[in-house]
C-alpha cells in the first residue's frame, strides 16, 4: 500500500474549463434567439391583425354571408394537371387570394353557370380583382370541351384527384359543387359561399371579399 507523504505538494489537474470566449458567447446566443423570435412575431402581426379585423371586429356587427371554415384547411401538397397537360404544384397558387370552384370535366349547364358566377363575382371587385385568382378544379378524367377555353379566360384550371378536394377544401368532390371556396394567400381554405346565388347574395358575397381584401391590405399585394 502506498503511503501518502504529507510533505509532498498536492497536485490538482483542471480539465475543460470554459474559455472566456465561450462564456461570453452564451448570453449572446440567447439574445440572438430572442431577437429572432421577436422578428418572427413582428412579421406575423399584420396577418394576425387582419384576421382579427375580419373575424372579431366585424363591420357594423353583422354576420357575413360566407360560411367560415374553422380550422382553416392548408393547401394540399399535391399537383394538378393544367389544360395543356403540364403538371403544376398546388402550392404554386400561394401568394394570391383564390376563389375556387370544383366540377367535372364535362361541365354541364349548372357547372357553366357556377363558373360564370365565379368569374362575375371576381369582376365586381374592381381593382381588387388583381389580388384574387379564380380557380376551377376538375375532379374527374372527363375531357374539357374546347369550347370552354375562351369563357374560362384567365382562370387557373387544374385537373386533380378527388382526394385533393377532400384534403384541401374539406368536402368530397360531389359536395364541393355546391360551394365557391375562398383561399387566403397562404393557401388556407377559410370560407365558402353557396355556388348558386341571386343578385342579393352576390352583393353580400362581394362585401365579404372586399372586407377580407381591406383587412389584409397591409401585407398582401397584387401578384405573387
What topology does this entry show?
Blueprint (H helix, E strand, L loop, with lengths): L19 H36 L11 E7 L5 E3 L5 E3 L7 E7 L5 H15 L8 E7 L10 H4 L3 E4 L2 H8 L3 H4 L2 E5 L5 E6 L4 H17 L9
Parallel strand pairs: 4-5, 5-6
Antiparallel strand pairs: 1-8, 2-3, 4-7, 7-8
Question: Would you write up a description of this structure?
Answer:
Helices cover 38% and strands 19% of the residues. It is built from 6 helices and 8 strands, in the order αββββαβαβααββα. It has helices at residues 20-55, 109-123, 149-152, 162-169, 173-176, 199-215; strands at residues 67-73, 79-81, 87-89, 97-103, 132-138, 156-159, 179-183, 189-194. It has a 6-stranded mixed beta sheet with strand order 1-8-7-4-5-6. Strands 2-3 form a two-stranded antiparallel ribbon.
* SSE pattern: HEEEEHEHEHHEEH
First-last Cα distance? 82 Å
Spans of at least 5 consecutive residues with low confidence: 1-6, 8-15, 52-63
The CATH architecture of the largest domain comes to 3-Layer(aba) Sandwich
Strand count, sense and barrel status of the largest sheet are: 6 strands, mixed
Mean pLDDT: 82
Strand order of the main beta sheet, please? 1-8-7-4-5-6
Per DSSP E runs of 2 or more residues, the count of β-strands stands at 8
Structural class category: alpha/beta
What is the quaternary state of this protein? single chain
CATH topological fold name of the largest domain: Glutaredoxin
- Specify Rg, calculated over alpha carbons: 28 Å
Please indicate the count of domains.
Answer: 2
In CATH, the homologous superfamily of the largest domain goes by the name Glutaredoxin
Number of helices: 6
Tell me the name of the CATH class of the largest domain.
Alpha Beta
Please estimate the helix content. 25-40%
Assess the beta-strand content as a share of residues: 15-25%
- Which of globular, elongated, flat, extended, rod-shaped describes the shape? globular
